[in-house]
Design brief:
This protein has 345 residues and is mainly α. Helix content is 79%, strand content 0%.
Length: 345
């Protein structure tokens, strides 16, 4: 594909993100007309419509754009550094660790279940959503550092990283199961609901935090795009070109996992974005990371915006968890990748 066509694909992706963001902003379960939405954007008209647009829909759209971009870029970086087309932000067990941290916070600490028991009203008063997000982030970050430390001791190869991630992720899943077994009914319900990927819990503050992490990490990846291109030719070739492969892999996996940890800690588990979008971008634009990194960010934003719009359209008055929509889209895509690899092999 020549430069003009690649530029056209990038412009089309950017335009699609803008268009889908507007669709996502104007379509929802409240069934407001286009005129109501436009008046609400100018903070005129019905006060309820103004609150819906400015306090609910705009933070939600921003969260979809930022988290979708972050999860997609994370997937691309993991696939490149691990040389594994099936790699995704959940490869290192980040999501599993975040779910355990959130469950621990909700069931035992932040939710106050040690004192509130099955009193749902007390939970609603005492629960601290930021404490839950902090616990989820801390455990997911600790899991990342543990896995990378183990890989440093053993051998920092892609296979070791993947196997260590699977093993540690299984431990977090087992610990979550034990914790939920001893939870009260309300605690269990709240913990399970948290694990659903839900953009509805986004606020301007959480959007700002996610934006800083995603933007800085993406800039870092872009600055090293030449190194990632060299890594595609193999470790030996990359080292001969002056690339410090182990250091690059360590930093890339750490930053990719931190992006995932931040997004998951605020929004819950949103799967398959990091698998679907990088593969689509590679098909459209090839492997050059100078293009595939920004294109993956745009594609991730587009996918999560579309999934959120669909989830709110199908909810019949309430939005379905967006994580369920992305999983429904991602599962057949994942199977298609497996069969295509088998055929090509």
């Amino acid at each position: 594909m020549n430069v003009r066509k690649k530029r056209g694909v990038m412009i089309a992706l950017a335009a699609a993100v803008i268009l889908m963001a507007l669709v996502c902003l104007f379509i929802g379960s409240s069934h407001m007309s286009l005129g109501d939405c436009l008046r609400a954007l100018t903070k005129s008209g019905d006060p309820a419509a103004v609150r819906i647009i400015w306090n609910i829909r705009i933070p939600r759209v921003l969260a979809a754009v930022i988290a979708g971009a972050g999860l997609s870029v994370s997937g691309l970086m993991m696939q490149t550094t691990l040389n594994n087309s099936m790699a995704s932000p959940s490869t290192l067990g980040v999501s599993n660790a975040a779910v355990f941290g959130a469950n621990l916070s909700i069931i035992a600490f932040a939710g106050g279940f040690l004192s509130t028991g099955n009193n749902l009203q007390s939970y609603a008063v005492d629960a601290n959503p930021y404490a839950t997000s902090v616990m989820a982030f801390l455990f997911s970050t600790a899991s990342i550092l543990l896995i990378l430390a183990l890989c440093r001791i053993r051998a920092f190869s892609p296979n070791v990283v993947v196997l260590a991630g699977i093993a540690i992720g299984s431990v977090w899943t087992a610990a979550t199961t034990v914790l939920q077994f001893y939870a009260t009914d309300v605690g269990l319900s709240a913990a399970v609901i948290w694990s659903f990927g839900d953009l509805g819990r986004a606020t301007y503050r959480t959007d700002a935090i996610m934006f800083v992490v995603v933007a800085l990490s993406t800039v870092f990846f872009l600055l090293l795009s030449w190194h990632y291109n060299a890594l595609l030719s193999g470790e030996a070739t990359a080292k001969s070109m002056g690339v410090r492969v182990d250091g690059l892999r360590f930093a890339s996996l750490l930053l990719s996992s931190v992006i995932t940890a931040v997004c998951v800690s605020f929004l819950g588990v949103i799967g398959f974005v990091g698998i679907i979008c990088p593969h689509v971008v590679k098909k459209l634009l090839g492997q050059d990371h100078r293009l595939s990194i920004p294109a993956s960010a745009l594609c991730g934003s587009l996918l999560l915006l579309a999934a959120d719009t669909l989830s709110r359209s199908l909810g019949n008055g309430s939005a379905l968890p967006v994580g369920a929509i992305t999983s429904l889209l991602g599962a057949p895509f994942f199977i298609a990748i497996i069969f295509s690899k088998k055929e090509n092999g």
